[in-house]
Amino acid sequence: MFRNLLTRLFNDEPHPQPLASPDAEVAIAALLVRVARSDDHYEQAERRRIDQILARRRGLTLDEAAERRAAAEMIEAEAPDTVRFTRSIKDRIALEDRLDVIASMWETAYADTTRVSDEETMIRLVAGLLGVPDRDSALVRQKVLQDLGISEG
Question: Residue ranges of the Co-chaperone DjlA N-terminal domain (predicted)?
Answer without folding.
Answer: 26-142
